[in-house]
Design a protein that fits this description.
Bound molecules: S-adenosyl-L-homocysteine
Number of strands: 9
Low-confidence stretches: none
Number of domains: 2
Largest sheet: 7 strands, mixed
Structural class: alpha/beta
Helix content: 25-40%
Strand content: 15-25%
Oligomer: single chain
Radius of gyration: 20 Å
Shape: elongated
Mean pLDDT: 95
CATH class of the largest domain: Alpha Beta
Number of helices: 11
Distance between the termini: 67 Å
Order of helices and strands: EHEHEHEHEHEHHEEEHHHH
């Protein structure tokens, strides 16, 4: 595709431009459009996904760090121009655009910063009812996996505490220019109706991260830094490893720790 070749992909920005229009459309169609009227696309590149977003009843914004891509978009998508944000998604304060309003997030994400993107979305979960798009397959699977699975970890628990996660489909390397080394996976996260946890949320993040920091150890050992009482540590949950605990069990664990009296 000649258009796709006008901008030369920059490796350090994780640029892999999608060549397949059907897949681009399918990703755009992964949005349920429920509960928001704004959407923010991260890393539009040359707009392969953007053009399908623009067909929807949505206010579409895009955030792109690469000047060359931004120039291309400004020239080829005139109506989009006022809603092109030339910034680093990780650093930019999204409230400058959206204030208190809700917005969905979508993208064929730059894979080198995928985990950081997920964490920023989790931080802003109050305003983000939906989050869908493409990651490297392994990360998409990790986000969606359930307890007992060997890729179940921090990303799975923290994301699924607030969002219903659904793995939609796998995308092979050949449909990108240049092709990445690995398969990609498209997923959709829809925020839960009630997304406040029945425990201290700051402590919850800390417990999950600490427990998976030493994932082969039992919780009794990995959570030593919390200085828990012997009485609490006698509870059978502390004999378990983090990958055995569902999100619900992590919430219960956090409550136990919160209420532990020495
Ligand atoms: N959506 C396009 C491009 C995907 S490649 C397509 O599917 O073809 C990832 C895109 O993310 C690139 O355009 C890259 O420049 C952009 N990008 C990388 N890091 C970014 C960041 N921190 N903030 C915003 N955009 C970023």
């Amino acid at each position: 595709m000649a258009e796709q070749n006008r901008v030369k992909a920059k490796k350090h920005l994780g640029q892999h431009f999608l060549k397949d229009e059907n897949i681009a459309r399918k990703i755009a169609d992964s949005l349920t459009l429920k509960g928001y009227k704004n959407v923010l696309e991260i890393g539009p590149g040359m707009g392969v996904l953007t053009k399908y977003l623009l067909e929807k009843k949505l206010e579409t914004f895009v955030i792109e760090i690469d000047t060359e891509s931004v120039e291309y978009l400004k020239t080829n998508y005139l109506h989009l121009a006022p809603r092109i944000i030339e910034q680093d998604f990780l650093k930019f304060d999204l409230n400058l655009i959206f204030k208190e309003e809700s917005f969905a997030i979508i993208g064929n994400f730059p894979y080198n910063i995928s985990t950081q993107i997920v964490f920023k979305v989790l931080d802003m979960r109050d305003q983000i009812p939906e989050f869908s798009g493409m990651f490297q397959k392994e990360v998409a699977q990790r986000i969606c996996s359930k307890e007992g699975n060997k890729v179940y970890g921090i990303l799975s628990v923290l994301t699924q505490a607030f969002y219903h996660a659904e793995y939609l489909f796998t995308v092979p390397p050949g449909v990108f220019n240049p092709p990445p080394k690995v398969d990609s996976g498209v997923l959709r996260l829809v925020r839960k109706k009630d997304f406040t946890l029945a425990c201290n949320e700051v402590l919850f993040f800390k417990v999950v991260k600490t427990a998976f920091g030493q994932r082969r150890k039992t919780l009794r050992n990995s959570l030593k830094t919390f200085n828990l009482t012997d009485n609490l540590k006698a509870n059978s949950i502390f004999g378990m490893r983090p990958e055995q605990l569902s999100v619900q069990r992590f919430i219960e664990l956090t409550r136990l720790i919160e209420n532990d009296k020495s």
